[in-house]
Amino acid sequence: MSVMIILIAFSLLLAGGFLIAFVVNTKKGQYDDVHTPSIRMLFDDETPNNKTTTKN
Amino acid sequence: MTMKSSIHTVQETLCYHCGEKCTGTVIQYDEKEFCCTGCKSVFEILQNNNLCSYYTITQNPGVSQQRAHVNTYYDFLDEPHVIDQLSFFKEGTQIHVKFSIPNMHCSSCIWLLENLYKLNPGIISSRVVFLEREITIVFDTKFVSLKEVVILLKKIGYEPNLSLDDLTNRSVKKVNRAQLYKIGIAGFCFGNIMMLSLPDYFSDGVFSKEAYLNTIFNYVSLGLSLPVFFYAAQEFFISSWQQLKLRKLNIDIPIAFAIVITFVVSIYQIVVLNKLGFLDSMSGIVFFMLLGRYFQNKSYNYLTFQRNFSSYLPIAVNKIENGKEKNIPITDAIVGDELIIRQQEIVATDGILLSTDAWFDYSFVTGESNWIQKHQHEVIYAGAIQKSGVSHIKVSKKPSQSYITQLWNSKKNPKFVSNTILTTERINVYFSAIVLLLGTLACVYWMWQGAFNTGLTALVTVWIVACPCALLLCSTFTYGNMLSILAKNGMYIKNAAVLEKIKRIDTLVFDKTGTITTSNESEIDFIGQELTEEEYNQIFSLANLSIHPLSKTIANYLNQYNQLDVQDFKTFEGQGIEGSIGKYRIKLGSRQWLGVKSSDNNTFTHVFVQLGNQVVGYFEIKNKYRTNILNEMTDLKSAFDLHLLSGDNDAEKSTLEQIFQQKGSLNFNQLPEQKTSYIKELQSKGKTVMMIGDGLNDANAFEQSDAGVAVIESENNFLPACDVILLARSIHKLKLILNYVSKVKVILWITFSISILYNIIGLSFAMRGVLTPVVAAILMPISTVSIVGLSYLLSRYFAKQHNLTT
To answer: Which of B237, B339, B452, B649 has the fewest Cβ atoms nearer than 10 Å?
Structure first.
């Protein structure tokens, strides 16, 4: 059962990694606008007839 | 086969671009129909650039271009300091700007605005934040200028709202991020502490063979709880500390106490007793409360977004463009515009005086009742009321509707002192005190019974589950919702205290001229001597200086004449106006004022003209009554006492008797003082009086009445003396509106009761120790959001029931 210590340590490390990712991305502004991307996602890419565009 | 008859039915053609009905000429282009050349032009631009997907994403996505202004002055965007202020980032020749575009309303708008780069190669990219109605555009100054970008936006129908104080948005974002950090950290710690507490849930937490594991689990949990206690829970502690310093109580205090107690007891248990403690509860409380508050704030923001934008009074100003006067909404005025302000009109934006000296009344802004004389080139601040003739000013600062509304509200009026017992502060204090007491009582009881754990649970949950937020907020929100719904229906109320007064109105007093009659379509004729063109010029010049409905009617009638310079312009309330042109003293006024002998011909309103020393004739004005006024009066009569106080003669008494359907309480030839004393008399009989007038001759009567309603024809005439502004075109909704306002009591009762019910049920469970802290922490924000949402829905429900626009 003493292996629990190692398991817990690893799980904390992993979860901590996610926490850091969360904090860093919030700092970069990912959560400043949560509404518009949901609409933007549904736009079609241009058909070959028109000019092609890659806009993300 | 029947022949098609020559009368063809008119089909409703809808514009392909904006979806509105095509009244007037229908413009055909590319087998599609448009309501105006504006809409067609936008379509042309989109088609030439292969952007017609715009029309497939949403139906008729365009904004009607019919009412768009044709010439707008954008040259100021070429100035480097303006560009500097509007852009927030520069790199080489690239500039990033942010604009507010109120017109965007659907996904097509977003699509088009993010495809701007296709319309102009100089534009590199653009990105929209829909909820804020903002767009960020990156463009290259080598290929396109800021002015061209703005003109392009205008051409496709998305004119930006140019304001030089865009920098305030930035700070709001930082605050929201801090909240997210706290929630993230609290959630991380909470989840992991719960995981570490799992053994505790299942087998009383004792590892029989490896007891050291227990210690490790406990101390790791302790370590994880530190960031929660010292960082994430900060706002509760800070708020409580501030309140305690002021010797006041608020709802954060029981919550802070609960957190501290759980933490301290847990530390004691871990360190001394080597038991697990309650760290999962503590971190759970913090996490769920923070989460709840975050969603609460989002709901409030959503609900108040509409309220803020629509409740502001739609003030309009008269702009001079190419020598002609044009009426535009205040939000369209930009720096550099020349505005004309007449006597008694309000200066709606900061400006530089272009004409010669003029007198201004700043009492609205500063409370200073003496008028101030301003000289040419001096700055006139918004909120001043012009008191001498006519002034031209050049706009020097972007106008803000909210500023005027704030000024309107800031005048402390003793007649609206709230005398309810339940003020916000009192509720906070009493509620928090009761909660603290109940918690302590429950805890003591359980401890006395020997159940230590239950006692602690009861203490903590009682202190968390009770929530006065709904009690405090439901009146604010209900009033706010009502104000915004009323604003959509053409009635602008100063603030919530006025709403409370309106609930109790039982008597309506009407003014005649301008209120029941409309100056727009009166018939007018001049009867008297033959006058030369010069003399008509003089009369026109004088009449054009006043905003009284009769003057406006005369000015409209004579509008082909020229405006001359008028000196020494004076207004005599209820009687007339006078001014000097050259050597002549000209007067326009009532029969009594000019001393004309009364004749029998008393059928219509007469405005007499005196040039120099001689009365040369009079204008005969046949008043046109507003449409549906008879129906409106019939409706109103069933619920209120109706009175008429008119400064005019009783020529149309019989017509008015028909309209009011009564013979008594119709008074004519009233001077302003008489109107005020009439209202005083009604009030002494115990009536609550609403005065409905145009505010020009009734300022004192307005102050005297319990609620003064100014009926305004156009949005130019903003009168600070009134409590409510009613747009003339909405006067037929008066009964519906008054009925709707009386429902505010119902809404408040419902929301109050439900909020109290929540608290009683929650507390009864908590005191028995049956509620877990985590569940308590979730319940609190749920109750607040649901009650606020309920008040919003009820306001709209009642509005629909009364056929008001929502």
So the answer is: B452
Q: In this predicted structure, what is the pLDDT of residue A22?
A: 94
Q: What pLDDT does B405 receive?
A: 66
Q: Note the residue count of chain A.
A: 56
Q: What's the gap between Cα B484 and its chain centre?
A: 6
Of A4, A19, A35, the CB nearest to B131: A35
Per DSSP, chain A holds a count of helices (H) and strands (E) of 2, 0
B582 vs B613: CA distance, rounded Å: 14
Cα Rg of chain A, angstroms:
21
Cα–Cα distance between B355 and B333 in angstroms, integer? 19
Cβ-nearest to A15 among B181, B188, B207? B188
Nearest Cα of chain B lies from the Cα of A33 at a distance, in angstroms, of: 6
Structure tokens at B569: 């312009």
Predicted local confidence at residue B230, as pLDDT: 94
Chain A hits for B110, Cβ within 8 Å? 36, 39-40
CATH number listed for the domain at residues B316-410: 2.70.150.10
Of A27, A36, A44, Cβ closest to residue B110:
A36
Question: What is the structure's pLDDT at B735?
Answer: 86
Pairwise CB contact (< 8 Å): A40 & B195: no
Closest CA–CA distance from residue B207 to any residue of chain A (Å): 10
- What is the token pair recorded at B76? 């100021």
Task: Pick A35's closest partner by Cβ from B114, B130, B220.
Answer: B130
Q: CATH number of the domain at B487-515+627-742, please?
A: 3.40.50.1000
Instruction: Please say whether the beta carbons of B399 and B393 come within 8 A.
Output: no
Listed residue (B217, B212, B235) closest to B279, CA to CA: B217
- Interatomic CA distance for residues A54 and A40, integer angstroms: 13
Sign of the dihedral defined by the CA atoms of residues B398, B399, B402, B408, in that order: positive
| Of B107, B177, B192, Cβ closest to residue A15 | B192
- List the structure tokens of B226: 């530190």
- Which letter does DSSP use for residue B346 in this model? B
The DSSP result for B571-600, as a single string, is: EETTTEEEEEETTEEEEEE-HHHHTPPP-S
CA distance A7 to chain B (A): 12
Tell me how close the Cα of B463 comes to any Cα of chain A, in angstroms.
30
- Segment B314-343 shows an average pLDDT of 78
Q: How far apart (Å, rounded) are the C-alpha atoms in residues B586 and B576? A: 11
- Residue B79 is which amino acid? E
| Burial of residue B447 (number of CB atoms within 10 Å: 0-12, 13-18, 19+) | middle
Task: Find the Cα–Cα–Cα–Cα dihedral B553, B558, B559, B563, rounded to 10°.
Answer: -110
Global pTM reads 0.64
Residues A14-52 have pLDDT tens digits of 999 999 999 999 988 888 887 888 888 888 776 555 444
How many angstroms separate the CA of residue A23 from the nearest CA in chain B? 6
Q: What pLDDT sits at residue B225?
A: 93
User: How many angstroms separate the Cα of B315 from the Cα of each of B30, B67, B713, B721?
Assistant: 40, 17, 12, 16
Of A11, A16, A26, the CB nearest to B180: A26
Identify all chain A residues contacting B180, using CB atoms and an 8 Å cutoff: 26, 31
Contacts of B176 in chain A (CB under 8 A): 31-32
- A12 close contact with B: CB closer than 8 A: yes
Residues B396 and B352 sit within 8 Å (Cβ to Cβ): yes
Q: What is the CATH number of domain B33-162?
A: 3.30.70.100
Least CA distance to A39: which residue of chain B? B107
Judged by DSSP in three states, B100 sits in strand
Residue B726: pLDDT over 60: yes
Mean pLDDT for all residues in chain B: 79
Kindly identify which residue of chain A lies nearest to residue B181, measuring between CA atoms: A23
Q: What is the ipTM of this complex?
A: 0.79
Report yes or no: A23 at the B interface, CB cutoff 8 Å. Answer: yes
